[in-house]
Amino acid sequence: MASSPVQRFTCFRDAYCSHRRCRPEEFESRVFLSTIQPFRLLAVLPFYLFHRRLFAMDFETIRAVGRASRVQEVNAVLEEFHNYNRLDRSRRRGMFKMRTSGTRLMSLFTRFEPMISPPSVENPLAGVKHLTNTQIFSVAVSATTQLRKVRQVLAGLASGRDFPSLLTEADLTHDEFLNGLVTNSPDNPAFSWLHRLITTESRLTEAHGEISELQRTISSQSRELARLRDTVHAAESD
After folding, report:
1. What's the Cα-to-Cα distance from 4 to each of 36, 147, 165, rounded to whole Å?
2. Residue 4 to residue 184: CA distance in whole angstroms
3. Residue 236: how many CB atoms within 10 A of its CB?
4. What DSSP state is assigned to residue 2?
5. Nearest residue to 181 via CA among 169, 167, 162, 168
6. CB 77, CB 189: distance < 8 Å
7. How large a percentage of the chain has pLDDT more than 70?
């Protein structure tokens, strides 16, 4: 009797949900809990139940791995995850490793890889008929170069290097770097995290500047008010 053919899926998430009989919306939570080191699970659970936002990067990583269909894609995602963990100085993630295990996540993907058939790769520029072959090649090279430069800066940050110096070495402006993070963030979880961090820091810097300016204005007005009071007091004395 011939055996039934193995059912094939286009990505890890679909293969996992079918085999484990879970809904797609349960995928991230189930994978997260299964990729925590067992002896750390009890310590992680209170944070998971009441402060789930602390694991935002873990869930972004799992989401990106869920879309993957090739081990090379998973390797790229986990490399970004590793860089993020090097940047995060908290005891929870660093010392106590209360986070997703990249090794366990890769092992889980490998277990389901035989059930995955990568979709055929289509040329994203195929429909752009008004471009010449030279122009199409130039666009592709530009996108690849941008991603390489962004990764270069991220690797430098993970090593503790100065951000402005890294931008200069990569020949990127601040805005170009942020644009590179946004453009490549769907498949690079650390990019979206870093973009949020940098934009939040920029807003805080702007807010501090506005507060300082407001304090200077208040101080100036206070001095002017004191001068007017002295003038009025002098006039009343006369």
Report:
1. 34, 43, 59
2. 40
3. 7
4. P
5. 167
6. yes
7. 84
In angstroms, what CA-CA distances link 137 with 127, 168, 193? Answer: 14, 26, 30
Mean pLDDT of 95-100: 89
Give the model confidence (pLDDT) of 178-190 as tens digits: 888 878 777 677 7
Task: Give me the residues paired with residue 116 across strands.
Answer: 9
Nearby residues of 82 by Cβ (< 8 Å), 6 or more positions away = 102
Eight-state DSSP code of residue 90: -
Q: 104 CB contacts (<8 Å, ≥6 apart)? A: 34, 35, 36, 37
Tell how far CA 140 is from the center of its chain.
Answer: 23
Query: What residues contact 170, with CB distance under 8 A and at least 6 apart?
Result: 149, 150, 152, 153, 177
Q: Which two structure tokens, joined as six digits, stand for 69?
A: 């269909």
Is pLDDT larger for residue 82 or for residue 32? 32
Q: What's the average model confidence in pLDDT over 62-82?
A: 90
Q: Length of the chain, please? A: 238
DSSP 135-191: HHHHHHHHHHHHHHHHHHHHHHHHTT--HHHHHHHTT--HHHHHHHHHHHGGG-HHH
